[in-house]
Amino acid sequence: MPPRPTPAPRHRRLALAALTALVLALHGWVLGPAWRIFQVRPVPAPPHAMPVVTLSPLAPQAAPTPTPPAPAPAPAEPKPAPTPDLPRPPAETATETIAPPPDRPRQEADLDRPSEDSPPPSADDEAHALQPLVSPATWLVDYAAVKGPASGRAQLDWQPLNDQQYRLTWRIELAGRETLAWQSQGHVGPAGLMPDRMVEQRQGRDLAAVNLQRDKGLVSFSGPSTTLPLPPGAQDRASWLLQLPMLAAAVQAHWAAGHSTLSLPVFTTRGEDQLWRFTVVAEETLPGPQGAPVRTWRLVREPVGPYDSRVEVWLARDHGLVPWRLRFTTPPANEPLELQLSDGLPPAEAGAPPP
User: Fold this and answer.
1) Can you give the pLDDT at residue 289?
2) Residues annotated as region Disordered (predicted)?
3) Coil, strand or helix: which one is 310?
4) How large a percentage of the chain has pLDDT more than 70?
């Protein structure tokens, strides 16, 4: 067997360990600063760091709405007894509406419509219904017109046609104002004039119309969508000027001033059915052509609303009861429109007293 190595003495091992420790210490002193470079150290967060907010043009999506739980089924209730069907109001349709002029609001122009509280027909209204009315021959009457500082003329043109038809035109012209005209067409019967259509014109242009549909018993209008029932003896804003003298001729024999009245329904282009009631105020004698006196009946229709007109008519008793003079007063201006016959007076009737 080979001989085993002899272990080094103890003092030699201690010297070797001390030398090794010294070498390591010298390396640590030299390499210490460079070693720190390669150390990984945690970077502390900056104090009070604020989050960065980035704006985006896209709107945030709404969170989905949770679906509510289905309600529990309600207990069955007994069905009520069936009720009869009620009539439904007719559906409103868009129609052209002609606005009333500023001096006569539509809601206040209906105050003179006949109602349950209206007085009953007078004895004159009932008397003329018992005998046929007679229409006069052709009239072409001119009037001098005055309203405040404005002056002008008016004309009443009555033309009976064939087959009991007629055409009546009522025109008013004032300086500095629009020319107004109303043209009525229809038939003549035992009850007087029966208008079929009346057209209102301004400056020669058709503005509005009233249609009296006698086959249907209704009155319709070109502007308002209102449809009204057609009463007996109904007139328009032109035909009343002839219907009134025809009614007066039938009942004037027993007139008493201050007590006798005449009534007639009048329709306007605004969709109104007005009851015009005239009271016989007095017998008046006025100066006529070339100073000759003219005997007249003065009839007055009083207004029944704040914007209604007061109408005064003087009927020439010995000249076919033609309107000899007219006056229309409408508040709030209170400037009456005065019309005085200037030409076309019908000849005196047979049996008339001498002037």
Assistant:
1) 84
2) 60-127, 335-355
3) strand
4) 62
